[in-house]
């Protein structure tokens, strides 16, 4: 476990622990203490602990409306804090020095927002009075309640002595701070048979927030923080700049290492990966690294720059041809740079990914930690979307990612940048399309029908020959292999299967266009398949048989695939959609082709869209989302690119309209719903949290909407509007999109829905 003084920024688990302690909802959660100082942590664990230690206890204590406000602001704060840590370095700064700056320059605004939102939603004392330094915040709330709740005095008189003494202690300037449990139990404290009418939801929210504010106010170091909060609530303009203030602190550390400044510059410039190195440079840089290490070890703040030294040690060993030792130093640098190094974090992590993947046996433990760090700080998105925290490598990293990281080795570290006489051999990069110059050379082996072959001239891919001949649509070879006993339950190294290849041949949406030759599907679907085969998706593109079946536009194909054992709720495509969601999107595109155009233009720079490009282009643009974005921006500067893209989209929508019809796609949607498709399944697109039921409401698909309601459609579900942070339900969606037929349904059922508790 790291000690808190070793890195300046608080971890995300520390933030959760601070909030939980401040609001007295931590209870005895040992995980918060055990993991407080872990920097390379599974981001799913952060979300899990936030839900377990913040969201759920708050709902039990103060009810859902108040809990949602706190949770929403805290979630936003964590996301923006990740950006801050990733951009603003704090090398040379101690935590004790940094924390006051963070309180004033970062955390202040979130308390201001919380107090304002709580006041807007629930009323109560003015937010400014809640942070008055010499007044008890809990007393301020109880005084306000006694004036605005007409039956408060009646309630107070009904309390026994113990509760009256407790309330009196809460109100004293140096009295007790109420516990969250006491606040939760307060409504049941009355001894009267006739319960006084009090807005308990409001009172409990105000008391818990007051409890948290008072707990912070009683810490001696928080005076300047609350003064800044108070001024901000008054509307004062704050000229404080956090980044500048941190740089001022860093300058003190810089003066301590001034004696080796020339060595630092020499090492930084000399170890650039792509510059040609003279003969003597290797030895000179070794001496400089040793001098820097000696100086850092002799000063108190030297540990704050250790990551930088380990990073450049790693580069020196790498350019000397020692890949293993370089990996060891990258491992040290990568952990120590987190919550310290600002923009250098991403540089170190990217180099570390490439080096760890390029080992003769990839360093999977290190790769898993690096991937988690990428997700935590927003450099990447999860490739495995299971929200459950896991220590297993395959639950965090997919195999294709290792190949892409490794493939970037010579781009980051070209051979001309190594020290003279030194080199590293990591093999042929597996990037770009699979190139096959003469497919006629590949002949079927009927004596060994289940034989696995290698495809490709430069890089190769392993696959059963049945998959190959189905993919290239050689019907005779496919038919003869099946007659000879080839198993349909087989997969390529990227998990392509014969049935998937047959469905892809029928896929209307593919570019380049598929042949739409149904013979392969009719042939292969005659054979029994295992559930695994029907429900396995490919690794990078996440092609899934049931979704490919939907994209044929043929209801009978979808029915057949379901009858063969496909799960209607399987997730596929790069953004993890269900077949029903995909089907509804195509209904929308057929009804409004302009929507197809706008959807495919507007999402190009979203993380999910950039990840999709990375998966489809196999590392051509690099391995980071930022590299995908830069490549696309450069491509769009070409004067004819916009015309070319527009033409492609027009051709695609034309093909969809030619081979898909509203009638057939509505029929497919109905088939999926009847087969058990989850109409309440949450998706990332078109918006995070959107469900098929919401999409049907948007598209004004009345019959499908009614069908979904019969099958358990949940009108209580909402998604959060990213612009306003408001929860939006189907009523608002139907109203916004002028879906008059669905609005009629909702109006008709509203009285019954609300009567039944909906």
Question: Describe it for me?
Answer:
With 758 residues, this protein is an all-alpha fold. It has four domains: 4-233, no CATH class; 258-417, no CATH class; 440-677, Alpha Horseshoe (Serine Threonine Protein Phosphatase 5, Tetratricopeptide repeat), CATH 1.25.40.20; 685-758, Serine Threonine Protein Phosphatase 5, Tetratricopeptide repeat. Helix content is 57%, strand content 2%. It contains 38 helices and six strands. The radius of gyration is 31 Å and the shape is flat. The protein starts with 11 loop residues before the first helix and ends with a helix.
* The number of domains: 4
- The helicity comes to 55-70%
Strand content: under 5%
Report how far the terminal alpha carbons are from each other: 48 Å
Describe the sheet with the most strands: 2 strands, antiparallel
| Structure annotation, total helices | 38
The CATH topology of the largest domain turns out to be: Serine Threonine Protein Phosphatase 5, Tetratricopeptide repeat
> What's the average pLDDT?
91
Q: Which class of the largest domain in CATH terms?
A: Mainly Alpha
Shape field? flat
Helix/strand-derived category reads: mainly alpha
Short précis:
The protein contains 38 helices and six strands. It has 758 residues and is mainly alpha-helical. The protein has four domains: 4-233, no CATH class; 258-417, no CATH class; 440-677, Ankyrin repeat-containing domain (Serine Threonine Protein Phosphatase 5, Tetratricopeptide repeat), CATH 1.25.40.20; 685-758, Serine Threonine Protein Phosphatase 5, Tetratricopeptide repeat.
